[in-house]
Each structure stands twice: as C-alpha cells, then as structure tokens.
User: Which sequence fits this backbone?
C-alpha cells in the first residue's frame, strides 16, 4: 500500500504544481467504485487550492492543498457532505442513504459532519472573466437546533419564579419534548461532543421536574439542570446575550446558579420570598 501511495504522490506532482504553499497528506476515504472516485475528487478539488487523488483499491486519498487557504478538515468535510466517510467525519445519514447502491460502503467513522456547506466558484474556469477573483469562498451555515431546548429551559425558570408547581411541570414537559427532538447527528462537531456528555442528565432532570408539582423538588432538580444547560449554551451560544446568575442562599448555603435572558435578577429558587437575591456572575454572548 505504501508503494502505491508513493506512486500516486509522484504522479500527482505535476498536476499540483500550480498549488502554492502545497502540503501533501494521505487519508482514508471510504468508497467502492469509479463513481465514488469521481464524486470524492470533485467534492474535494478546488482549482489552485486543493487536489484530491483517490485510489479505489486502497481507499486512500492523496490530499495536496495550499495550507494558507484550506486544511485537511475542510476538504474532508466537503467530501463527507456528498456522502463519503473518512476516519474523521461521518457523512449525513440522508446523503449516504441516497448514494447509488454500488457506492454504499461499510461505515466505521464516529463523528458526523453537520454543516451545510456551499462552495462558491469551485472548479469554475474564470479565464474569460478578468475581474473575477480566483479565491474560493466556503460559506458554512449551521442551524442551532438547541434553541428550542434553551427557550423551554427559560420557560421552566420563569415558572419557578412564580413558585407555581403546576406551571413548572407543564413547562418542563415541553422541555422534555425539545430534548427528545434534538438530532445529535445534526449538531456541530464541538457541540455534539458536549451534548453527548450531558444529555442524559439534562433529560433526567427535566423529566423529574415534569413529573412532580412539588416546587421544592423541582427547584432541587433545577440546580443540576441549570449546570448542564450552562455547559451546552457556553459552546453553542444563544441568539441574544444570556446571563449566568448565582444565588448564595439556596442549597443549604452552598449556592446555586441559573441562566436568564435578563440581567436583572429574578430568583427562581425563592421566587417572591427573595426575588432579587443573587447576582450576575457571567454574560454569555
């Protein structure tokens, strides 16, 4: 296999001569046939920036790219987005499932690609457009599907401020639904890894709050829920600034945190008894 890779590198040297600051790496990309080769190379190639040479027999690809303009991850993401896994990125399930039968291979990668990537001007010949830049622009769009989770968390918090166990339970049922609707394979890579670690705790706390009308029990579970929601919202962000607040009195004087869309303190652990008890300790933007 090493000999074949070396030959591939040698044969691709001439075609890649136009790539400046060239860096060459070999990676495994899963596929089966000539059709796979065409799609893999078309997705990975960017004129004068990146070239992919994929070998059907070895499933190894030689990546040659301008290291000042792109990197291995960006190339592999583009390839994953047309249906082909690497050891780093897993293609979206719906894209893989739409591959021709002969192209569907055994899947082994663990980390999914979530972004919807639009590559502008890739592989276009601009020889007749003197004012058109050769630079390729990649626009990455990623929907924050956790917004419904955060929105429903805030509704639970607001219900606790009123000390209404029935309203809190109802709001938390909606939170449970939002949690269950999260498609982990559609999350951005870094968010996916965090969500995977905390989702069981978040779900359990939300269910416990939903299954009782006892405000004291609800508030006890809300402390743990808030801690894990904080972990997720820190990395995924929210559409507006979020304020991480702290009550020093709750939990037998150990204190407890919560998240709010308002900087003004409205304490969910005591409600009207000590509504303004606490302070903002962090602003998440």
Assistant:
């Amino acid at each position: 296999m090493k000999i074949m890779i070396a030959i591939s590198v040698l044969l691709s040297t001439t075609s890649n001569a136009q790539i400046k600051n060239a860096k060459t790496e070999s990676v495994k990309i899963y596929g089966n046939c000539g059709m796979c080769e065409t799609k893999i190379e078309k997705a990975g190639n960017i004129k004068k920036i990146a070239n992919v040479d994929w070998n059907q027999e070895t499933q190894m690809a030689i990546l040659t790219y301008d290291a000042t303009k792109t990197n291995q991850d960006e190339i592999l993401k583009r390839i994953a987005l047309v249906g082909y896994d690497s050891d780093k990125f897993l293609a979206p399930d719906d894209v893989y499932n739409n591959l021709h039968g002969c192209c569907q291979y055994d899947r082994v990668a663990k980390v999914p690609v979530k972004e919807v990537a639009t590559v502008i001007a890739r592989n276009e010949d601009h020889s007749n457009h003197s004012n058109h830049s050769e630079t390729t622009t990649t626009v990455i769009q990623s929907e924050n599907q956790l917004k419904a989770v955060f929105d429903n968390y805030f509704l639970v918090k607001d219900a606790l401020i009123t000390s209404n166990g029935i309203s809190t339970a109802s709001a938390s049922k909606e939170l449970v639904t939002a949690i269950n609707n999260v498609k982990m394979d559609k999350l951005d890579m870094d968010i996916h890894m965090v969500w995977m670690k905390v989702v069981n705790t978040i779900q359990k706390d939300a269910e416990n709050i939903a299954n009782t009308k006892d405000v004291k029990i609800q508030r006890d579970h809300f402390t743990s829920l808030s801690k894990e929601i904080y972990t997720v919202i820190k990395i995924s962000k929210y559409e507006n600034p979020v304020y991480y607040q702290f009550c020093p009195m709750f939990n037998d004087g150990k204190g407890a945190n919560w998240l709010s869309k308002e900087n003004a303190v409205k304490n969910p652990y005591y409600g009207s008894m000590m509504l303004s008890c606490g302070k903002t300790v962090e602003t998440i933007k």
Notes: Helices lie at 2-12, 34-44, 72-80, 93-97, 147-161, 165-180, 189-210, 215-236. Confidence is low (pLDDT under 50) at residues 4-14, 114-143. The radius of gyration is 25 Å.
